[in-house]
Structure formats: structure tokens, C-alpha cells
Amino acid sequence: MKILLSLLLITVISICSGDEYRRVCYFESWARYRPKIGIFVPESIEPQLCTHINFAFATLDPSGLNIKAVDWNDDPVMYKRFTDLKIKNPRLKVMLSVGGWSMNSTLFHNAVATEATRNIAAKNIVTFLRSHNFDGIDLDWEFPGSRGSPPEDVHKFTQYVIAIRKAFDRDGVESGKPTLQLSAAFGPRLESINDTYEVPEVTRYLDFINLMFYELHGTWDNVAKHHAPLFGSSDGESLVIDTLINGWIKMGVTKNKLVLGVPFYGKTYKLADASKSGEGAVITGPGEAGSITKQSGTLSYQEICLKINQGAVVKRLPGQSAPYLVDGNTWIGFDDQQSLIEKMRYIVKHGYGGAMIWAIDMDDFNGVCGGETFPLLKAMYRSLLGGVIG
């Protein structure tokens, strides 16, 4: 009995002290413009389910030296509604994610250009975050050294991160406030890492790294494959989470800094022949846009679970912890509660830093499928909280 009570006390102390797996939830700010069933705003969030919530996205001004809001009413209206989530959960860290796929490399290139620009940008980041009550910044440059960014930007990005780290540490001492947090979203593909990041140098200065373990497959493969498989199939597939994250560890990155990204959306494909619908079936392009997200090739989990309620049969790819379904001539790969719990078990077993979600607004947040609200996020929450797997 004494041993059991001691273990329980250790668990409670660990959870209360903040020593828990990160649950990093990205919030797509444009979800406010979706049709009624899919409208998602900051007040839609249950903030206790996440340890960090990232507002996606802000951008930079043409000089690259100043953070700039993307939408007309982000600053200050949406930013304040977002950071007010800390009233409900004082332990929550609210981050501003800067960049994203739509922001070209030019702006980051301008920011990292010289020591002077890096230091000015870092100082301005501190001022912006503090004035808007954010707890940190998430850098989402896709990607240094590519998409219009020259190879020398890879090293300059490391120096940019160091400049921000120093500015954050200095501000923490001078202000007496908790030090601002610094994270980055990284593409996980091993074949391009050395052309994109200085690993492990750059990771030393980040509090944690959000590895985007989705979009591992797509229409470019010309066949149907799951976009976020945990393990590989029998054909020796290497673009799987297990292989990729082990590659990061071999490069010397600290395990507890790595946060594994999981998708709350499905990838869809049009089958060339609906009678041949297993993994590897030939496709002709992306599936049609859904009525909520309105993006070809993508469906939110909410859109998928409605299909399941209407009779679509979920199948699972052997050994991959990856579900899919076929709806007419459309192949849909996605994650569900079962596959996400398996991924959380993997995180706990190997001692990684937690899970990142793209994106919280893609969950069945209002319970339209007939179950609880946020079924995917709650499955992850229950699995990761205190490292206890149910």
C-alpha cells in the first residue's frame, strides 16, 4: 500500500509540476470562415486539453523585421480572444506561429540576412509577443535553403534562432516574467534534412520541435497511400514515422524535444478503378473537396466521421496503425481514436516529448457525429496525461 501511494504521489507531483507530455494544438485562424457546422473560433477550444495552442498564422512585413497579422481583425481582436484562453487554463502556453506554406521564403530570408537584421528581428519579436500576451513563438519556415531561399540561409536560420533565444533569455531576466518559449515546425524527411537544417546545432536552442509527420504521401505517388503511417508496410516503405524519427535521434537530437505531429484530417484520392481499392491502388488525382473544409484532397475528421455514420466501412492497413475507408471511387486515409492511441503509446514507450496536432479545428469539436466533443483530442489527452496509457 505504501509503495502504491508513493507512486501515486509521484504521478500527481509530476503532473502538477508541468512535467508532462506536450500536447501542441495548432488553430487554423481561417476556420472562422467555414460553413456553420464547421465554424471554429478561439472560444470553441477546450483549453485544458492542450499544453500549448499555436495561432496559425502570422506573417512578417516586407523587411522581415516585424511580425504582421494576416487577417484584418487578427490584431488585436482575434489575438486577445485567443490569449484569453489562459483565463480558463492558467497553465496553458499560447504561442504565435509565424510562417506556414503560404508565406514564401523571401520574408524569412530578409530577416536572417545579417547579424544586424537578426538581432533587430529578435528584439521586435519579444516586443510583439509581450504586448499581445503570447507566451512564445513557433517558427514555421517552409523551408530554409529552398523555395527561393539560397543554401546559405540554412546556417543563417540557425543564427536567427540563436538571436531569438538570447533575446528571450535576456527578456526573462529583465522582466521577471516566465521566459518566452521558442519552438519550430520542421519537415521530417531524412533525405532533405541536411539541405534544410543544421541538426543538431539549431535544435539546441529550441524548447521543442514540432515534426510534421503528415503529408508523407500524396497524389505525387500516383497511388493511394496513407499520409501518416506509424510503421511501414511489407514492401519496405521508409516514409513512416518510426523510420523518420529514429533518423532524427541518430543525428543527436534530444528525444524529449521531439514532438510528433499527427493529422486530424484525411487525405483523399480518386481511384482509377473503384474495384481495386487497397493500398497502392492507382489514383487519378485528389478527391473532391468536402462541404466544410472545401479543399480538394482533404477532409476534416468531422467530415469523415459523418461518412462513417452513413455506413462507410473503416479498414486498417496491416501493421501500419493506419485506418482508411473507400467511399464510392474515393480512397480516404485518416487517423481515428484507435490509431492515435497507438501513436501515443509509441511516444510514451520511446520517451519523446509529446504530440502535435494539425489541426484542432479538424476534430469533431461539436460532436455532430453523435459522440463526445473533440473525440480525437480527448483520446490523445487521456493517453498522454501523466504518461498513463488507458
Automatic annotation (TrEMBL):
The keyword Hydrolase applies. One of its GO terms (cellular component) is extracellular region. Gene3D superfamilies: 3.10.50.10, Glycosidases. GO terms for biological process: carbohydrate metabolic process; chitin catabolic process. InterPro entries: Chitinase_II/V-like_cat (IPR011583), Chitinase_insertion_sf (IPR029070), GH (IPR017853), Glyco_hydro18_cat (IPR001223), Glyco_hydro_18_chit_AS (IPR001579), Glycosyl_Hydrlase_18 (IPR050314). Residues 1-18 form the signal peptide. Residues 21-387 form the GH18 domain. Transmembrane segments: none annotated. Keywords: Disulfide bond, Glycosidase, Hydrolase, Signal. One of its GO terms (molecular function) is chitinase activity. It comes from the Eukaryota. PANTHER family: CHITINASE, CHITINASE 12-RELATED. Belongs to the glycosyl hydrolase 18 family. This is GH18 domain-containing protein. It comes from Patella caerulea. The lineage of its organism: Eukaryota, Metazoa, Spiralia, Lophotrochozoa, Mollusca.
